[in-house]
Design a protein that fits this description.
Chain B: It comes from Anthostomella pinea. Chain B: Belongs to the glycosyltransferase 34 family. Chain B: One of its GO terms (molecular function) is glycosyltransferase activity. The complex is a heterodimer of chains A (about 300) and B (about 450). Helices cover about 35% and strands about 15% of the residues of chain A. Chain A is of the alpha/beta class and about 300 residues long. Chain A has a single domain, classed as Spore Coat Polysaccharide Biosynthesis Protein SpsA, Chain A (Alpha-Beta Complex). In chain A, the strands form 2 sheets. A 6-stranded mixed β-sheet of chain A has the order 2-1-3-6-5-7, with helices on both faces. Chain A has a 3-stranded mixed β-sheet with strand order 4-9-8. In chain A, helix 2 links the parallel strand 1 and strand 2. Chain A is elongated. Chain A starts with about 25 loop residues before the first helix and ends with a helix. With about 450 residues, chain B is an alpha/beta fold. Helices cover about 40% and strands about 10% of the residues of chain B. Chain B contains 18 helices and 11 strands. In chain B, strands 1, 2, 5, 7, 8, 9 and 10 form a 7-stranded mixed β-sheet that branches. A two-stranded antiparallel ribbon of chain B has the order 3-4. In chain B, helix 7 links the parallel strand 1 and strand 2. In chain B, helix 7 runs parallel beside helix 17 and helix 8 runs antiparallel to helix 12. Chain B is globular. Classes of the chains: A alpha/beta (about 300), B alpha/beta (about 450). The interface between A and B is medium-sized, with 37 and 33 residues.
């Protein structure tokens, strides 16, 4: 058996490799239709998929930055004490370009619940009135804003500031609640800033960030079933209840040292005011008599006026 | 050696010899007894069997299975090219001349064929081939399934169906044959539906559980299972809750096409359109924001987070949708509250349903994100339910309209759940016959009946 000799190799090899197959080659003139086809397929996919259509909620522009909310009990409306409180709020708001909502408890129909519930409705009202505000600061009637220089959005709600001041991993309702504030909460995620006094969570002064969460929180707090439950301290105990039972609220809550927004005139119920604190409250003061609110506040009345006129 | 009781069968099969095997269960693993063999007294069926197979029993010193080549020789040799056309005896006779049959490559043949075709026929053949390829791709391979699933194509992944199974099971009562049959049919129905459209199906066990030591938290598990499902299916956007006593009558309807592609057209947000509970709507109070005071919230379908139907007595949570959102987290969190529960649990017969009605009635933030669906879109009732006022076109199933889902609500109180389920199942099959079945049953069988007077089942 023998084979033919293999063909002699050419001594000048071809400069390019020969085309291996006649299939699977894309000539330049074929490129265009291929591109068109690919484009058409992609277009069809896009057409059928319809794309994502979701938009976020409305954007809050932050004007005014803060709204100060105070509800007056409407008993001594014309007394100089109440007038000075109104003046105090307005001047502070004016200085920083904030909004104010100074209403009376009788403006709201509470269906027989204690008047202290009106603060919750008033906050909701403030959102309606200032839909673009960034923060809402509720401050009790019996309180003065003492330091005109401090801005709520920086001093209280500023993200890094808040991360420094907030009390982490601490029982929400002292001393022995097993529910504790979050240990890793970012300043930007905080929607509600509260303080504690000697009796528990203090609802005399708190700050909320405006938004959907605020509406949810206020509506939940104002639930008629809480109002009808006869909590001993009405809305304050209802607040303690929802904060402990509902993680969607707890996870947005920061507790800050009391004097940040809620210093008291005396040290019987909580931490005492020191010069430079943003506000002073007169808790448990009465309408008339020796310990009346007007009496207790006299000491501070002059002080805030002088500091405001200097500013 | 006497034993107090007879030994049980061993897992490996056979029967351990109790008198001989004192040390343990009767099963001895091959590894343990490989060297000892019978010496340690454990003569079992298993060990005997293993020994006879030569798996173990003696120290291994065999030449079998050693080394690469011995182990792989057979495989290597079988994959070598073979030149033995004539090896098979049967063909030797035919291939006397040792001639090979012509083997033209497939591609070559196709090319030759296409060369013989004219241009017009080439195009026709191409179109035909494309159609065939599309058909194969979409209906034979699972491509269709994946297409429907993918979130940016069909979007099936975005929907999870939660089916509440085993309702009230566990401690309360034993399930009988009918209950099992209902459960089996219902689950199969949902499973078929979800696999057709690429949705996720989550079957949750609703047997009565205790959440806290002191209370039975009956039927509030809805909340927990919805939350779990959002966690389990991170791509899910909508969760569709379905009670056990439901049946998807029209599996050919996709949720997207049926409801979600044009959400605003199907839902109504103003409860006054159908208001069996007489809830005053919209809310009043000048402290509320315009969205809360408006009867339709902000009117955009994007703000709808809960979609539920209403039956003759109010909200119906036998079949409803929730969307993944912060709002939903809040609702699920607030839905069960100890203070509300303490005050109302005696009045709230329908537990979470009543609680939701309470929340809807009193809380503006719920109202502006809730929408309703006309009941028959996802929750038609059979004639037995809500039957006080006779047949209601808003409530009751009508086969002429090909309603999507039927919910045999309340059938466990005095009605025949299994009977209803069976009838609806058969009706669904009947309505969704394929053209061939229709041809056989509606034409051939009828003609046959006319001709011969005999009914036939084809």
């Amino acid at each position: 058996m023998h084979f033919a000799y293999p063909a002699r190799k050419n001594s000048n090899p071809p400069p390019y490799l020969p085309r291996s197959t006649r299939w699977l080659k894309i000539r330049r003139r074929h490129l265009k239709p291929f591109a068109a086809l690919a484009l058409a397929v992609l277009g069809l996919i896009w057409l059928f998929s319809g794309g994502s259509k979701h938009k976020g909620g409305r954007v809050i522009s932050g004007k005014p930055a803060v709204v100060v909310v105070t509800v007056f009990d409407g008993k001594y409306d014309n007394s100089p004490y109440i007038k000075s409180i109104r003046e105090n709020r307005s001047r502070y708001a004016e200085k920083h370009g904030y909004g104010t909502l100074l209403t009376s408890a009788s403006d709201y129909d509470l269906k027989g619940s204690p008047a202290s519930w009106s603060k919750v409705v008033a906050m909701r009202h403030a959102i309606t009135k200032y839909p673009d505000c960034k923060y809402l600061w509720y401050l009790d009637q019996n309180a003065f804003i003492m330091n005109p220089y401090l801005k709520v959005e920086d001093f209280v709600m500023g993200s890094t500031k808040l991360e420094d001041t907030m009390i982490k991993d601490f029982p929400v309702v002292p001393p022995d609640s097993i529910i504790k504030t979050f240990a890793n909460l970012k300043g930007g995620d905080v929607e509600l800033v509260l303080t504690q006094d000697k009796e528990g969570l203090a609802a005399g002064s708190f700050v909320i960030r405006n938004g959907e969460w605020a509406k949810f929180f206020l509506d939940t707090w104002f639930d008629p079933l809480y109002r009808s439950y006869n909590f001993q301290k009405a809305e304050a105990h209802a607040l303690e209840h929802i904060v402990q039972w509902h993680p969607t609220i707890l996870s947005k809550l920061a507790i800050v040292p009391q004097r940040t927004i809620n210093a008291y005139a005396g040290d019987a119920h909580g931490e005492q005011y020191k010069d430079g604190d943003i506000a002073v409250l007169f808790p448990h003061c009465s309408g008339t008599g020796d310990k009346s609110c007007a009496r207790v506040s006299e000491r501070f009345s002059q002080q805030w006026r002088t500091s405001f006129s200097k500013a | 050696m006497s034993l107090s009781r007879s030994p049980s069968p061993v897992p490996g099969g056979g029967w351990s010899s109790p008198g001989l095997n004192m040390n343990g269960s009767g099963r001895s693993s091959p590894a343990k007894m490989s060297f000892g063999g019978p010496a340690n007294g454990a003569v079992t069926w298993e060990s005997a069997r293993l020994k006879s197979q030569g798996v173990a029993g003696y120290p291994s010193f065999s030449t079998q299975n050693q080394g690469f080549f011995t182990r792989h020789m057979r495989r290597i040799s079988s994959s070598l090219p073979s030149f033995n056309v004539g090896a098979d005896d049967r063909y030797v006779e035919k291939e006397k001349l040792g001639r090979r049959p012509w083997r033209i490559p497939f591609i070559g043949r196709v090319r030759a064929m296409s060369a013989r075709l004219g241009r017009k026929w080439k195009i026709r053949a191409l179109v035909l081939a494309i159609f065939l390829a599309c058909y194969l791709l979409f209906y034979i391979t699972p491509l269709c399934y994946y297409w429907r699933r993918t979130s940016w194509l069909g979007g099936g992944e975005k929907f999870v169906i939660i089916l509440a199974a085993n309702v009230g099971g566990g401690v309360m009562e034993w399930k009988g044959a009918r209950e099992w049959a209902i459960e089996r049919d219902s689950v199969r129905n949902k499973r078929k539906y979800t696999s057709r459209w690429g949705y996720e199906l989550e079957i949750v066990d609703m047997s009565t559980k205790k959440r806290y030591a002191h209370e039975w938290r009956e039927s509030w598990e809805k909340v927990d299972s919805i939350r779990n499902s959002f966690r389990k299916y991170p791509k899910a956007e909508w969760i569709w809750w379905l009670d056990l006593n439901t049946f998807v009558m029209e599996p050919s309807y996709s949720l997207q096409h049926h409801i979600f592609d044009d959400l605003n057209k199907h839902i109504y947000r103003d409860i006054n359109e159908y208001n069996p509970l007489n809830i005053s709507h919209p809310l009043t109070g000048d402290y509320l924001d315009p969205d809360s005071l408006s009867p339709i919230g902000d009117g955009s379908p994007d703000s709808v987070n809960l979609i539920l139907p209403q039956d003759c007595s109010g909200f119906n949570l036998g079949s409803f949708f929730v969307r993944r959102s912060d709002w939903t987290d809040r609702l699920l969190d607030i839905w069960w509250d100890p203070v509300s529960y303490e005050q109302k649990h005696m009045q709230w017969e329908h537990k979470e349903q009543d609680a939701l009605e309470q929340l809807y009635t009193t809380q503006p933030w719920i109202r502006s994100h809730t929408a309703f669906l006309p009941q028959r879109l996802i929750n038609s009732f059979p004639t037995g339910a809500c039957s006080d006022n006779g047949n209601d076109t808003r409530i009751h199933y009508n086969q002429d309209d090909r309603d999507f889902v039927v919910n045999m609500a309340g059938c466990e109180w005095g009605r025949d759940c299994w009977g209803e389920m069976y009838n609806f199942r058969e009706l669904s099959y009947y309505l969704n016959r394929n053209p061939w079945e229709r041809f056989k049953e509606d034409l051939i069988a009828v003609i046959w009946f006319k001709l011969t007077g005999q009914k036939v089942k084809l």
